[in-house]
Amino acid sequence: MSAISRPPTRRGPATPLERSPAPDLARGVMLLLIVLSNTGFYLWAAEHGPTGWHPVDGSAIDGAVQFAMITALDLRVYPMFAFLFGYGMMQLFRRQVAAGRTERSALVLLSKRHLCLIAIGALHAGLLMAGDIVGLYGLVGLALSWLFIRRTNRTLLIAAGAAVSLLLLLTALTVLDAVSGAATAATTPSTVYYAAGTADWGAAAVTRLTTWLFSTTLVGGFLGFTFHAAMLLGFWAARRRVLERPGAHLGLLRATAAIGIPIGLLGGLPVALAQVGVLDIAPNHLGDQGPWFMVQMATGLPAGLGYAALFGLLAHHLSERALRGTAATVVAAVGKRSLSCYLAHSLLFAPLLAAWGLGLGAHFGSASMALFAIGVWLVVAIGAYALERAHRKGPAEAVLRRAVYGPAA
């Protein structure tokens, strides 16, 4: 693929010609995977099993959808998001420094962006969805940018390795707890913590904010070693321009995809087999305090990295004509407006499905909910494509950029 000439770097946000296709394509598909993985939280009227995540009273088709989601999506998409988030952080930092800012000034700019993301995450959780990850990545990004973004590549890899080691240690301790009989089963479905089944919007908002603040943001921020490792590896990969110049890193990308994705699929397989009744696993080993949950989380990191590598390979092998085609343009338009599209998904999901809204989630199963999610993504993608053709940013990106860069952006 021929190199695209790029204009001189400037201090404001990236211009369209400064963007590479692979990260945007990856983000666009990633948002579809995220909206699919969030569907279980809105099945609030269904009967849930020991995992507390997926229903157990559905049809065979529902079971097949759950099997696919557990093996390929659950705890696998968010590490990919974290990697791409870290990649974008390093791109922004390096662009600002190249444009003449001091490293400290560029870090201050990043910090403003992360603080804005935390605020957006709080609003998102309070108004719509407790599982917001914008605030989590804002918090983790704020810490990691000051601690590591100016460090050497060697230090980044060592720090990522330390995060992986802590993740494996935590997994091992959870397994030992299970062997000793200390592991506990999930007794409350996740829909309760997400307040999808709460009819009163005010009470639901309190529950959502509590869940978001403590379970999602603070616990994820301090103990989310998967996110730490993925972002740090995103820093490292961005310095080497792995996704912008995939042709120069084909060996790395192929190895990451070929090794990471199968590890992720195999790591989710036991829980998926237990979900559909093929494998008999003790209930106290399946909840979010059990060993198999931790195995899912630990193997989710290589899966997320493998997915990101796969999109780098895809961008390399697609022709220039295909990258300019309608399908790729629509997906990339979603990726360019990932924050707006992520929030738009919740805006379409929560009021329609939650009990405090129209309550339609009571009438869906896993399969029908997955179809609904695909439909929502398509609607949002059409909106993103319309904005792309009009050369307009997403509304959330416009607000964020004005807050970070000022009116000149």
TrEMBL record:
List membrane-spanning regions. Answer: 25-44, 64-85, 106-127, 133-149, 156-176, 212-238, 250-273, 293-318, 339-358, 364-387
Q: Where is this region: Disordered?
A: 1-21
Q: Which domain of life is it from?
A: Bacteria
Q: Which InterPro entries match?
A: Bact_Transport_Assoc (IPR052529), DUF418 (IPR007349)
**What's a Pfam family this protein contains?**
DUF418
Tell me the keywords, alphabetical order: Membrane, Transmembrane, Transmembrane helix
Q: Which parts of the sequence belong to the DUF418 domain? A: 237-406
Instruction: Spell out the protein name for this chain.
Output: Putative membrane protein YeiB
